[in-house]
Amino acid sequence: MADLQKIADDLSNLTVLEAAELAKLLEEKWGVSAAAAVAVAAGPAAAAPAAEEKTEFSVILAAVGDKKIEVIKEVRAITGLGLKEAKDLVEGAPKTVKDGVNKDEAAKIKATLEKVGAKVELK
Q: 46 versus 105: which is more confidently predicted?
């Protein structure tokens, strides 16, 4: 096993240019991005902004209900999909109907689909 304390000390003594070069070498060797490692390392600190109000929602069709044809019509109107695509989406529930919508639009879509008997979730 490697001496982890020695490795940590050696890394602490690197210049910024040497650290950048090391990052590039490791990215090439392991086929990963250093940006992902930074995001993981900042995990606890990055969790604090998650307390802010969510601005984008996904509208998910959880269950169709009794009025499948009405739900298909509404899904077509909401998404602009063709009949076959809308039917496949509805029959494949739970599926995402619309992604990245604001809170008001998500609530409107949810109300529309629930009005025709579907069960909808917002995430």
A: 105
